[in-house]
Amino acid sequence: METIQAIKPGPKPNKEDGTPDERRRVTPPNKDKHPDLKPHKHRPKD
After folding, report:
1. Residue 13: CB partners within 8 Å, gap ≥ 6?
2. Can you give the pTM of this predicted structure?
3. Secondary structure in 3-state letters for the chain
């Protein structure tokens, strides 16, 4: 039986030269390829 490990959120890694690794961010030139998130619709409790 395999164990399930959760994804750990944490600080962004730095590249070897010490600058932040930007691969997990959407850069302004690529912003058009990524649509905005849909607005959250809150449902009141029943």
Report:
1. 21
2. 0.29
3. CCCCCCCCCCCCCECCCCCECCCCCCCHHHHHHCCCCCCCCCCCCC
Write 18-22 long-range contacts (CB < 8 A, 24+): none
**What is the C-alpha R_g of the chain?**
18
Question: Tokens 């994804």 — which residue?
Answer: 7
In single-letter form, the type of residue at position 29 comes to P
Torsion of Cα atoms, 21 then 23 then 28 then 34, to 10°:
-150
Per-residue pLDDT of the chain (46 residues; tens, 9 = 90+): 788 888 877 777 788 888 877 777 777 888 888 888 888 888 887 5
